[in-house]
Amino acid sequence: MAHIVVLSGAGISAESGLPTFRDVGGLWKQYSVHDLASPGGWERNPQLVLEFYNTRRQQAREAQPNAAHTALAALESQHRVTIITQNIDDLHERAGSSNVVHLHGEIMKARSSVDESYLVEMNDQDIALGDLCPQGKQMRPHVVWFGEMVPMLESAADIVATADVLLVVGTSLQVYPAAGLVDCARPNCPITVIDPGEDVKVKGATIIRKTACAGVPEWIASLKL
């Protein structure tokens, strides 16, 4: 059974109506990424950071998986599929994908600000100032902020190295270190990039200039493994 590895990014979730980090809009436009998504911003104003991520969590709850998510989930009936996503939403899982690695964390979980192993599923809840872990420290979103290490990066690199086929969808491959994962693929591994933009360049890759919803089902239909 072929191992298909998928690197997914914000573009696949955008088609479900989820704004990218820089497109959240509204009152958040007045703040920088360093205010909302960095350890320094958390230190300065944890209430602001919690409100921002509570908003994003609500948006994720209201969004629904799209045709690209469901097509990738259905692919598991024929092949071994591992999805490595830069997205913090749970749309891949809700579509039915069973093997998802989140590089940048998961918006639907909270964790202790002093113990990364202490995780809580948020379900329909928000994180409030004063929500404490067993060590008596504030709970925070289970996401990787700018300036923090990406704990799943090494595991993701090992997974990419085992790919028989690599699909990149919904990401312009401009954000490092995640963008460097394509370089971990074996020299003979076929790579396909599905992205409607013109700025994605991967040496030796097949480029499909379509959105995720249009390109992923088309790519799957053309697979010959």
From TrEMBL:
Annotated binding of NAD(+), by residue: 9-28, 86-89, 170-172, 212
Catalytic activity: N(6)-succinyl-L-lysyl-[protein] + NAD(+) + H2O = 2''-O-succinyl-ADP-D-ribose + nicotinamide + L-lysyl-[protein]; N(6)-acetyl-L-lysyl-[protein] + NAD(+) + H2O = 2''-O-acetyl-ADP-D-ribose + nicotinamide + L-lysyl-[protein]
A GO CC term attached to the entry: cytoplasm
Documented EC number(s): 2.3.1.286
Deacetylase sirtuin-type domain segment(s): 1-225
Active-site residues (renumbered): H104
Binding site for substrate: Y53, R56
InterPro entries to which the protein is assigned, alphabetical: DHS-like_NAD/FAD-binding_dom (IPR029035), NAD-dep_sirtuin_deacylases (IPR050134), Sirtuin (IPR003000), Sirtuin_cat_small_dom_sf (IPR026591), Sirtuin_class_III (IPR027546), Ssirtuin_cat_dom (IPR026590)
Subcellular localization(s) per the UniProt record: Cytoplasm
Keywords annotated in UniProt: Cytoplasm, NAD, Transferase
PROSITE patterns for this protein: SIRTUIN (PS50305)
A GO MF label: NAD+ binding
Pfam family, one: SIR2
This protein's domain notes: 2 residues (Tyr-53 and Arg-56) present in a large hydrophobic pocket are probably involved in substrate specificity. They are important for desuccinylation activity, but dispensable for deacetylation activity.
HAMAP family: Sirtuin_ClassIII (MF_01121)
Role noted for this protein: NAD-dependent lysine deacetylase and desuccinylase that specifically removes acetyl and succinyl groups on target proteins. Modulates the activities of several proteins which are inactive in their acylated form.
Family per record: Belongs to the sirtuin family. Class III subfamily.
Protein name in UniProt: NAD-dependent protein deacylase
